[in-house]
Amino acid sequence: MKTYAVTLESDPWDSFRCQKAANSLDIDATKKLRHDFAVQAEIESPFNVGLIVGASGSGKTTLAKEIYGEKSLRRILSAKKPVIEQFPKGFSYDDCAKMLMGVGLSAVPCWIRPANTLSNGQKERAEIALQMARNDELIVIDEWTSVVDRTVGKIMSECIQKWARKTKKRVVLLSCHYDVLDWLQPDWVIDCNKQTFVDRRSLRRRRKEKFTFDIREIGRDSWRYFSKFHYLSDRLPGGHIVLFGLFLGSDQIGFQCFANYVPHRNLEKLNGVREKMHSNRTVIHPDYVGLGLGLLLMNVTSQIMHDRKFHVMAKFSSVPVYKAFKKSDRWRFLGTRRDHKIMVGQKMVRDAGFRLDVAAHHFEFIPE
C-alpha cells in the first residue's frame, strides 16, 4: 500500500465583498479555502479498470495528475476532423473500425462526420477510442459521463470496461457519479469523498442493475430519425413491410424492418409454403450500442414473424453483424455473394437499391 496525498488550496481574496462574506463566519475562513486529501491505495498490481470517484472539488483530477502526471488527462479528439481520420497512421481501416465498434461507436456515418457534429455521448466514445489506440501503457479519462444522461453513461461504462478487458488495456476513469460503478465493475476504487480505497480484483463481477426493454409494432414515421444511423439507403424497401421499434420506457431506441423482396402474388397457390420476409434496416441508437441489443432485436422480432407464418431470411454486408450471426444458434449461414449489377432510379423499385460489388452475407432464421 502506498499513501497518496494532495492539497487543494486557494489564497483569500481581499475585496470588500469577500472580506464581508468571510467575516460573517464564526470560523477561520482560510480553513474553508484548503482541502487536504490522503488515501492508502494499492494500484500498482495488474488491473484493467480503475475508478477515482467523488464530488466536484473533492480532488479527483488533482489526485490523478499527482499519480500519473499533468499530461495524463489531455484530450486528443479534434473537433474539425472526422473521427476515423484521427487514428495513428499505422492503423488500417479495419483497425480503426474495430476500435470504434469496441467502444460502442458503431454507426459508420458518425465516423466520417466532423467530430463537432456528434452528440456528447458519441464524442466521449470517440475520445476513448482514440485514447485506447495510443501505445501508452495506461489511459486516464476524466468525467466521461458528465455530459450525458445517466442511462447512456451506464451503457458507455459497460462498453468501456468490456473493451478494456478484451484488449488488455489499463484504464483509469474519473467520475462524480457513483451510479456507474455497477456497470464499470472496476478492479479498484478510490473514493475521494470518503478518502478510502477498495480493492475489487478478487470480487466476482456481476451487474445487479438491469434495464427492461419492450418491442412494439410501429409505423414508418420514426425511420426518418433512425435512417441517419444506418449504412444503407435512407429509404425503406418497397412492397409489403413490417416494422418494429425497441423501447426503453417511452423512448424508442431501436428500429427493425422486415420486407418481402420477391413477394408471392397468389397466396392461395403457395400450398403451405411460407412467404419469405427479409430482416433488414436494423438500427440501435448510437447511445445504446454495446449491450447486444441489435442481435436481440432481430432474434425476437424474427420469432414474431415466424409465428405469423413467414419464412425469415436476412442479407447484409455488415461484418460485425455477420460475425454475431455466425456465433448465434438462431441463424443458419447460407453463403456470401456479390451483386455485380446495379439499377438506380428515382423510385424505390424492387430491382433497385442493390449495391455493386459488395459482399452480402445470407442467413436463414432458425425458430425456437
Describe the structure.
It is a single chain. The protein is of the alpha/beta class. It folds into two domains: 47-199, Rossmann fold; 214-365, 3-Layer(aba) Sandwich (Aminopeptidase), CATH 3.40.630.30. The protein is 26% helix and 25% strand. It contains ten helices and 14 strands. The protein has helices at residues 16-23, 60-68, 93-102, 108-112, 120-133, 150-167, 181-184, 223-226, 293-307, 319-327; strands spanning 2-9, 34-41, 49-53, 138-142, 170-175, 188-191, 196-199, 214-217, 241-248, 251-259, 275-284, 310-316, 331-338, 359-365. It has a seven-stranded mixed sheet, covered by helices on one side. A five-stranded mixed sheet has the order 4-5-3-6-7, with helices on both faces. β11, α9 and β12 form a beta-alpha-beta unit. It starts with a strand and ends with a strand. The relative contact order is 0.11.
Summarize the structure in short.
With 368 residues, the protein is α/β, with parallel strands linked by helices. The chain is built from ten helices and 14 strands.
Give the fraction of residues assigned to helices: 25-40%
Order of helices and strands: EHEEHHHHEHEHEEEHEEEHEHEE
| Anisotropy-based shape | elongated
> Going across the major beta sheet, what is the strand order?
8-9-10-11-12-14-13
The name CATH uses for the topology of the largest domain is: Rossmann fold
List the main descriptive attributes of the protein structure presented here.
2 domains, Rossmann fold, 5-stranded mixed β-sheet, alpha/beta, 368 residues, 25% strand, 26% helix, Aminopeptidase, 7-stranded mixed β-sheet
